[in-house]
Input
Amino acid sequence: MNNLVVLPLIIPIMVGVILVFLRPYIRLQRVISLLTMIGVSGLSIYMLNVIQTDGIIRLDFGGWKPPFGILFVGDSFAVLLVLTASIVTAVCLIYAFSSIGEKHEKMFFYPFVLFLIAGVNGSFLTGDLFNLFVCFELMLLASYALVTLGGEKVQLRESIKYVVINVLASWFFLVALAYLYGTLGTLNMAHISERVAEAGQDPLLTTISIVFLLVFSLKAGLLLFFWLPGSYSVPPTAVAALFGALLTKVGIYALFRMFTLIFYHEPSITHQLIGIMAGVTIILGCMGALAYKDVRLIVSYNVVIAVGFILIGLAIATPTAIEGSIYYIIHDMIAKALLFLLAGAMIKMTGVTKFDQMSGLIRNSPIFGWMFFIVTCSLAGIPPLSGFVGKILVGQSAIEAGSYVLLALAFFSSIVVLYSLLRIFLNAIFGETIISKEDEVPLKKGLLIPVVLLGFGTISLGLGAEALADYVSNAAYTLTNPAVYIEAVLGGDE
Amino acid sequence: METLIILLIGILVTVATYLILSRNIIRVILGTAVFSHAVHLLILTMGDLKRGSVPLLKEAEAPYTDALPQALILTAIVISFAVTAFILVLAFRAYQEAGSDDLHELRGTNDE
Amino acid sequence: MKINDVILRTITRIIVFIILTFGVYLFLSGHNTPGGGFIGGLVLASAIVLLYLTSDIESIRKSLPFDFKLVAALGVLLATGTGFGSILFGVPFMSQTFAYFELPIFGKTELTTVTIFEAGVVLAVVGVVVTIILSMSESEEA
Output
C-alpha cells in the first residue's frame, strides 16, 4: 500500500474542480494550475527514487486485494512518462497564459487541462484494464472539450470527426475487454498476464490481442492516423501542443504495456504486425510531412512519423530496443510540444499558415529562430541533442535483430524529418524579413519563455541522458521481464 | 440463450453501422448510442448469462452470479451517457454555426 | 410556440414530489441494496427537467437559483474528497468505513462514508444533466 501512486490522478482532478469555483479569478487559476503541475512533477521524481530503492509500488483501492479490486501500479516506465507529461503540461500552461485569451480562460480552460492530465496520468499508472478504459475516457472527454473550446466553425467541424472516431475506438476497446473477460475471467493486467502464460496464447487470444492492437493504434495514430492531422491543427496552439505531446503517447504506452506484459508469446504474429504497421506509418507520415505547406499540418505529420519510429522499438522487442523507445518517447514528448509551440508562434507572428509565405523570422527574434534550429536537429537525431540516444539504441537493436527494413525506414524517416523542418527553417526563418518595422510585434516574453524552457529541456535530456540511464534501464528491465511486474502486483503485501 | 443474445448483438451492430455511415449527424449520434448498447449486451453475455442468484448479501442464497460485468456496464453506461450528451451539444453548436446537419457539407475544402 | 398542456402541468405538480422522493430513496438505499448515486441522481434530474418542461425557464430559475455547473463541481469534489480523506487517515485510497449510531427518531442507524461519496455522485449527475439540457435549450432561444 502506498497512497503516493494515486496522487498524480487525484490532485489534478480535485484542483481542477476547485478551479471551477474560482471561475472569475483568472490570475489565481493560472497560479494554482501551474503550481499543481510543478507539484505533480516533484512528486513523480520522488516516486521514481522510491521505485529505484524499493521496487515497484502499488496501491489497492479501498484495500481490496488484487486481483479482486482495482489498483494503481507505479513502475519506472509509467512514472517516467508521468513525470515528462507533467513537466510538458506545466510548460504548455505557461505558454497558454499569454496566448489563450481571456474568453477561453473563463470557459474553464484550466480545469479541462487538469482533467486531461489526470486522465493521462491515470492511464499510465493503472494496473487494471477496465480502469485504463475509464482513464482513457476521462482524458478523451477533456480533450473533446479542449478541441471545441472557442467554438469556431472549423474547430466544430474537425471536432465532430475527432469525437466520432474516438467513440468508435472506445467501442472497440469495450468489445476487446468483453472478449478478454469472457476468455480469462479477469481484468487485472498482471493476473491476465499470468493466466495467458499458464494457458498459452492460443489463436483466440491472439485475435483478441489484435483487436486491442487496433484500438490502441487508433488512439496512438499507428497506421490509423487519418484523423490526427486535421484535429491536431485546429485547436489553439497550447492545446495542440498538449495533444501532440501527450495523447498519442498514451496510446503508445498502452501498446507497450499490452504487448510486453500480456501478449508477448506470439511475436511472430503480433510483433511482426506492429513492425509492418510502424513501417507503413513512417512512409505515409513522411509523405504527409513533405506534401503540405501548412506549418501546422507538417508538424502534425511529424507526430505520425515519431509514432512509427517508437513502435519499431516495440516490434523488435529486445531490451535495448525497448530502452531506446523509452528514451525516444520522453524526447518526443518534449520536442513535439516545443515544435507545436514554435509553429503556433510563427503563425502568430506572421498571420499566415504556409511557410512559403513567411520569411526572415530570425531577424525579428533571433532566439526563436535558433530554437527552431535546435528542435530540428533534435528530432533528426543529431548528437548531443535528446533524439540521438533513442535513435542509436533502436538502430543498434534493429541491426542485432536483423530487421534491416525497419532500420532503413527508421533512418530514412530521420532524413525526411530533417528535410521537412529545414525547409521551414530556410524559407521562413532565414532570408529577408517580410514584416516591416512598423508592423513588427515583438514576440511576447510569455511565449518565448516556454519555448526556451523546452529547448533547454531537449538539450539537457541529450547531455544528461546518463542521469536518466538508471531509471530507463530499470523501466526496460520491468517491461522485458513480466514476472517482475506480476510479482509486484500479485505477490502479497510488502 | 447466449446464441440468441449474440444474434441480437449482431443485429444491433448492423443497425448501428448503417446509422453511423449516414450523412445526417443525428443519425450518426444515434448510431453511436446503439453501438454502446450492443457492447453492453456483449459484456453481459461474456460474463455468462444468469447462473445463480442476485449478487446481494442476505437477499438470496449462494451461489451468486458474477457481479463484475454489471459493474463494468454501469461504468460504461455512465461514460457513454456523458459522451453522447457531449456530442449532442457539439452537433447542435455545429448546426447553429454551419447551418447544416449534413456531414458532407461539414467536410470542408482542401485548401484552407 | 405555445402549447396548451393542462394535463402535463397538473400531473407534473403532483408527480414531481413522487419522483423526488423516489430519487432520494434510491440514493439512500444505494450502498447495500439496489439503487445508488447515479440512478438516484438521474431520477432527481428528471424531476427538475420535468419542471423546466412545464414552466418557463425564468420562473424555475427564480425558485432554483443554483448554477448547475457549480453543483456538478461540488459533487465531484465531494466524491473525490471522500477518497482523498482516506489518504489522510493513512489507509488505502477510497477505503470506506461504517458504524452504527443511536439516532433519536430512526433508532439504530447505519451511517457509512459511502453515503457521502454517493451524495457527491448524485450532485454531479444532477448538475451535469441539467447543465446539458439547459445549454441546449438556452442556445435555441438565442
Observations:
- The first helix of chain A runs from residue 7 to 21.
- The beta strands of chain A are 57-60, 71-74.
